[in-house]
Amino acid sequence: MRFNLWNSLKISMTIIGTTIGAGFASGREIWEFFGSYGEESSSGIVLATLLLFAASVVILQISWKERTQHYSEVLVHVIGVRLARLFDYLVMASLVTSTLVMVAGSGATFQEWNGSFTMGIWVMAAAVILILFFDLKGLMSMNAVLIPVMVTVLVVVCLQFLQGTGWMFVPEEGDLPTLPVWPSAITYTAFNILSLLAVLSTMGRQIQHPAEIWVSGGISCLCLGLLASLYNYSLLRVKSLISQYEIPLFALMRDYSDLWVATISLILWLAIYTTAVSNVHGLSFRLSEYLSFPPWVIGGGVILLLVPVSRLGFSNLVTLLYPLYGVLNLLILTMILLYPFTKEQ
C-alpha cells in the first residue's frame, strides 16, 4: 500500500463539502453556535474543530479496517448490533428529512432569484442524480472541484471586508457571554455528525494507506477551523447588524456589486447541493442492501419521491424536523468519540 496525497485531498474536500452546508456558508450557523458568544467564540471553534477531526478519523478508521459499505456497518461497531438496528432506521429517517430540507432550500433560493420554487426543486433533483450516476468517484471529484471555489470565495469576502473596515477588533461593552461556549461547540459537532457518518462510512475501500485517514482529517478540519475563525471574526465586527439579515454573510457585503451578490447566492446554492449529494449518497448505499438496484438508481428514486413533499416549504421543514434529531446526534457523536477507548482489543 502506498500513500496517495491526491486521494487524501479528495477525502478532505468531501468532509468539507459535507460540513459546509447552507447554514455554514450563509454565516447563520457560525453566528448562532459561536459568534453570539462574543470573544469566547474562538475557543468554541477550536473545540468543535478538534471534535470534528476526532470523529472523522474514527469513522474513517472503522470504514477502512472493516471495509464497510454504509453507515449501518459502522454503527454496529460503535454501539453494538442491537442498538445499531434501532439507530439504523433513525439515521435513515434523519438523512431523508435532511435531504428534504436541502431540496426545499433550493426551491427557496430560486424564489429569491425571482424564479419559481418548482424550478429550484427540479434543478436540485437533476443535479443530485447526475452526480450519483458516477458513484463515489463522482462525489469525490465534484467536491474536489467545487469546495476550493466555495472556500476561496468566502475567504475573499471576509478578507475584503476586514481590509475595508480595519483588522483590529475592539469588543463592545456587554460583549461578555452569559453562558459558556463549549456546550454550543459540542452541539454544532453533533449537528453535522450524521451526514459525515453517512458519507465517510462508504469510503473505506477507497483508502489505500492508513496515513490518508489522518492527512485527510487534518486538512479538512484545519481548513474548516480557519475558515470558521475568519468568518466569525468578521461577523463580530458587524454584531449590531446581524439581526437585520436573514443571511449574516450579506452583512459583510453591504457595499458589494450586484455581481458579487449573485456570486454569493450561487455559492449558497452549491453549499446546499454538496450536502444534499452527501446525504443521498449515504442513504442510497444503505438502501442498496435491501434493493437490487445500483445506488444511483436508488438515490434518484429517493430524490424524486421527496420532490412533492418539499412543497411544504423550507422554513416549515427546518422548524419541524431539525430539533427532532438533536438527542440522536449527540448520542451517536458520544459513542463515536468513545469508540477508541471502549472497543474490544
UniProtKB/TrEMBL annotation:
The chain crosses the membrane at residues 43-62, 83-105, 117-136, 143-162, 182-201, 213-233, 259-281, 293-314, 320-341. InterPro entries: YkvI-like (IPR038728). Keywords: Membrane, Transmembrane, Transmembrane helix. It comes from Kroppenstedtia guangzhouensis. It comes from the Bacteria. The keyword Cell membrane does not apply. The keyword Calcium does not apply. This is Membrane protein YkvI.
